[in-house]
Amino acid sequence: MASEHRKKDPFLIVGAGVFGLATAHQLASAGYTNITVLEKDGQIPSRFSAGYDLNKIVRPEYADSFYTPLTLVRFLSQSISLIYESELIFAAQEAIRKWQEDPLYKPYFHQVGFLNVTSGSAPKVSRDILQKYLASISGHPKVQGKIQPCPDSSTIKKLIPALSGPVRGWNGYLNSLAGYAHAADAMKSVYEDCLQKGVSFRLGPHEGEVAELLFVPGTRRCVGARTKGDVRYHAATTIVAVGANAARIIPSATSQVTARCWGVSHIQLSPKEAEKLRGIPVINVRDIGFFFEPDLATNKLKICHMGGGYTNSSGSTGVSLPPSRLADSDFILKEDEEASRRLLREALPHLADRPLIDNHLCWFADSDDYNFVIDYVPETERSLAILSGDSGHGFKMLPVMGDLVMKLLVDGQQSVSRWKWKESKPGDNVAWRTGSSADLATTPRAKL
């Protein structure tokens, strides 16, 4: 374990999204006393974070069964367990148990279930991936008795009577262990607990938006960061956790992650309409998109088209980065609208032509093999770490991500090969998605 002197050393965390907040919280919980978090937004939850959302899916199944134990298997905080022959996994607690039991997270978790299906017109890749998802949890003791096969539309409509549409050709399963979390509220809960534990936050462009990292002259040893307002922060260890914006601060991160986005929309329901859908599972049609029960406070129903995602590539560098201004992401693409309305026609046809509101692009850091990047940046003498590569599945790890980072800091190296810094991209295909990635510049916007 780290020494007491080490615990007094200054830590600087850049970014107060899911990974940054989780890391700050775990450091403070472990007794570290000099933690500063920088966030360019003027509020937390940060509107630049992919976690700034009504809700996020919390489920254990994966196309790659490596991640299933992180959400299902319980670990002691001092343990390292061999899960697969080639990989070591460290986690302080398993994620779903914390969502279910930990007072910090429990109020925001809704265990309504997760319907995971493909449509009648799904391509083979979607059907194959669905089977991998099911295989990753089949036989696991935590899931025993929680999986209901859904081989046809009649079974689905019996299980979920609120689905008034034909759900033609839908085929998959219902996992009653899973559900969703109210994302922004959960992040706010972690933030407030960080404040109680003495973590210092600096918000807004002047104090919280990093212009550049600081290095010892002539070396790659990072000693902190300078903000847009020319405020300088010095640290023994700097941790960059800015998601899709990673390459803005660490240019070499382009070899690790690509900034991509999905289009997110909402439909405003009346209290009576919302009540009829209260408690439905998360509805996930892998080749079209997904939606949630209406938000308890606003009665808004969130819907998202889940295709290959979109990039925002610079003409001069080819690097994809999110727009700098929030307002420049306040739209969705035409294919997002078409897919969302197609999904509603099959599931809830009375809502299919309703206005889509609160439309925006949700930006995430996509690694081509959908693995996280939790490692020291090479040649920085363990002074600079990067947390990125959420790949659209990072939020559910909020309760355990800090433990994964702590293992890196305590060990001084990343022992899980798939979370290491990679010198080159492993490929362009994100296997579990349906469809190809496109660039915003060449993709028509929805006219809403």
The tally of helices reads 12
According to CATH, the fold-level topology of the largest domain is D-Amino Acid Oxidase, Chain A, domain 2
Mean pLDDT level? 89
Q: What percent of the residues sit in helical stretches (DSSP H or I)? A: 10-25%
Class from helix and strand fractions: alpha/beta
Q: Which class of the largest domain in CATH terms?
A: Alpha Beta
Radius of gyration, taken over Cα atoms and rounded to an integer in Å: 21 Å
Number of domains: 2
CATH architecture of the largest domain: 2-Layer Sandwich
The end-to-end distance, rounded to whole angstroms, is 55 Å
Reported for the largest beta sheet, the result is: 8 strands, mixed
CATH homology group of the largest domain: D-Amino Acid Oxidase, subunit A, domain 2
- Strand arrangement, largest sheet? 8-9-7-17-18-19-16-21
Q: Can you count the beta strands?
A: 24
List low-pLDDT spans. 73-93
Morphology:
globular
β-strand amount: 15-25%
Protein name: FAD dependent oxidoreductase domain-containing protein
Domain FAD dependent oxidoreductase: 12-406
Pfam families: DAO
Keywords: FAD, Flavoprotein, Oxidoreductase
